[in-house]
Specification:
The chain has 363 residues and is α/β, with parallel strands linked by helices. The protein has two domains: 59 residues, DNA polymerase, domain 1; 293 residues, Alpha-Beta Barrel (TIM Barrel), CATH 3.20.20.70. The longest helix is centred in the middle third of the chain and has 15 residues.
């Protein structure tokens, strides 16, 4: 490991403190942010608005080290997936999904995942460690540099979702500075409505996120009752649905009437896709500003589940629409390169599958 300061993971406050220790003015932080994140530059010698002595000093005490790209795959539908080495034995996956009016980057927060959701390939690989802020934001840097800009000069990545490998809210100390960098006008300048953190339901961390960073929230719900959710999403045994929805209401308190939480619901044939369950879901979310995203299940080796039929998904959606909800059905993208929702696996040296120690860290 290098003893140099990794500048990738420092937000503006962190960079300002770094330059203050070097005896430099605060505006240097803005200059470096622009070079790294807007221009995709990792070589201090190319930062021509910095004096040569400062460039030399930065090269001696700091580094901007992009991760090694082990694999760069493109799907027939335009989805692109990168496999990025994060250390000697582990790699994580990052996925870009192009759409007509936006480009969404799906970013990982952990090497593997300890949540053990039964329908998710990442959870079946186990858990190794949290990613650092540097490793989180480097995924955005790699994708942004690879994709470049659209012909009109606009950035191609318009949205970032923390929905890759891992549970983001079990890694808040690294997640928060990474989010700050994504939102900063001197770096990626993303709107807070276009940065989404997805959680399986870490209740104390939802409250901490609200207090520290105003971004969109998505909740992996997947069941309308505790009995089924205990089976599908084991963290529900610690934070049952009533506690989770109370946290969601707290998260929405004081936000504009246009704001909502996206509730993700993977559609599993014969498990959670009945009309009765749709009605229960409608009742459950009645007092939460909600958008519901129905996700066709994406199979992976060894799974016992099957994708709900198109007719079942359509019926479930219609029942919710009739109750006044905004309901979308996620289009499956990138499944030919295992880049679809629930298929990300990366390369994980499993150290621990137990949930408790990771959940306690979020308190």
């Amino acid at each position: 490991m290098s003893d140099k300061t990794a500048l990738f993971g420092l937000d503006r406050e962190g960079l300002t403190s770094f330059f203050a220790e070097l005896g430099e003015r605060p505006f240097r932080a803005q200059q470096i942010m622009q070079w790294i994140h807007q221009r995709g530059e990792a070589d201090f010698d190319c930062m021509t608005n910095l004096a040569k002595p400062l460039r030399s000093r930065l090269a001696a005490v700091a580094e901007i080290r992009p991760p090694e790209v082990l694999l760069d795959q493109q799907s027939a539908d335009g989805t692109r997936k990168w496999l990025l080495r994060v250390d000697g034995g582990n790699a994580v996956e990052t996925v870009f999904i192009p759409e007509q009016n936006r480009g969404t980057l799906c970013v990982s927060s952990q090497v593997g995942c300890a949540m053990a959701c039964t329908f998710c390939a990442t959870g079946h690989q186990g858990f190794n460690r949290n990613l650092t802020a540097t490793e989180i934001i480097a995924q955005v840097w790699v994708a942004n540099r690879a994709l470049g800009h659209a012909p009109d000069g606009e950035r191609i990545i318009s949205n970032v979702v923390m929905m890759g490998m891992g549970e983001p809210l079990l890694n808040l100390p690294a997640l928060l500075p990474a989010l700050n960098i994504m939102l900063d006008d001197m770096s990626y300048g993303l709107s807070k409505r276009r940065v989404t953190v997805s959680t399986s339901g870490i209740v104390p961390a939802i409250d901490r996120l609200k207090a520290q960073c105003d971004v969109a929230l998505a909740v992996s719900l997947h069941a309308p009752d505790d009995v089924l959710r205990d089976e599908l999403v084991p963290i529900n045994r610690k934070y049952p649905i009533a506690e989770l929805l109370a946290a969601c209401r707290r998260y929405m308190a004081g936000k504009s009437a246009r704001s909502h939480i996206t509730f993700e619901y993977v559609m599993l044939d014969g498990i959670n896709d009945s009309s009765v369950q749709a009605a229960r879901l409608a009742e459950l979310l009645a007092d939460v500003p909600a958008k519901i995203n129905l996700i066709p299940f994406n199979p992976f080796p060894g799974t016992p589940y099957r994708r709900s039929s198109a007719a079942a998904v359509s019926r479930f959606q219609e029942l919710l629409l009739n109750r006044g909800y905004i309901v979308t059905v996620r289009r499956t993208r990138g499944d030919d390169i295992d880049a679809a929702c629930g298929q990300l696996a990366g390369q994980v040296m499993n150290r621990l599958r137990r949930l408790e120690s990771h959940v306690e860290a979020a308190r």
